[in-house]
């Protein structure tokens, strides 16, 4: 299949989902929209992994919990390999190790390979476990013969891979396999790829084994600027990884807030929701030193301080108010736990004009304190 030009990842997803449903290629659970789609012939596609040398020599295999990968999970168990399955939505950790009971029959192994098996026959694998994954198997919505992959859009497969890199479980050389229907193999414009997207080395379909020869570098760890505070709240293991990387001196600034581990007690990440993108109103993810606007120097003449934010304010509330008043800045630095934000404008004249628009600005019942950031610092 050849997507039209100017296509987005979501366009490609919708095209695949619609086609699989309309042609009755889709299999339970249906409809396949917003899922890694299961398809008729998925077990046949899974059997092709036996032809791969990388599977034959692998001892520890990480396989996603998606329905179309059930056949690979069963083959891994039958081959006496260590099977690691990510915790659904990473709610309680990163991996579960599937441990069939001694002398398990084929029927029990089949059950172990299902989602029920993850619940009934698994033990959690901690962050400190010395896991070395020899092969990664992921689900996809679409994949190209070049090895470029599109998931269902929630980013969990990319995040799981980045977390495995961070804990030393995989390296650039660890092969990645995906299993799809033939109709899911499409051309994907390279412009759609981002640095945190994982690529695949092998694509297995019911009729083909494709060695992609992909040389595009895989992610080298977690891109913290892509992680929202909402995700930090939902995924406890991310918080532990962030603390580790922070102690190692890495930049762990998040996407939508200046957050660090101590704020878990002082101000729960739930006080900030992941904002919707507003054109012309970008968030700035610069680290800020206490008592200053930016770590890199004093406030600029084109910066505005906004204080007295309500404790339960969301960054999206402030964005909406700024947009309605026609005072959208170039960038915004949100410091919700400290009940303040900074607005960065193009030049002092734009900042002065915005300042006059923002006098008397209210969020809920609270009137906000608005001033030029330099004047506020002098006070």
Automatic annotation (TrEMBL):
Chain spans, region Disordered: 259-296
Which Gene3D superfamilies does UniProt cross-reference here?
3.30.70.330, NagB/RpiA/CoA transferase-like
Q: Name one Pfam family in it.
A: 5-FTHF_cyc-lig
Compositionally biased region (Polar residues) = 262-274
Q: Which GO terms describe its cellular component?
A: cytoplasm
Q: Where is the RRM domain?
A: 302-375
| Keyword terms, alphabetized | RNA-binding
Q: Which domain of life is it from?
A: Eukaryota
Q: Give GO terms: molecular function aspect only.
A: RNA binding
Respond yes or no to whether keyword RNA-binding is given for this record. yes
Keyword check for RNA-binding: yes
PANTHER family recorded: 5-FORMYLTETRAHYDROFOLATE CYCLO-LIGASE-RELATED, METHENYLTETRAHYDROFOLATE SYNTHASE DOMAIN-CONTAINING PROTEIN
Protein name according to UniProt: Methenyltetrahydrofolate synthase domain-containing protein
Organism listed in the record: Prolemur simus (Greater bamboo lemur)
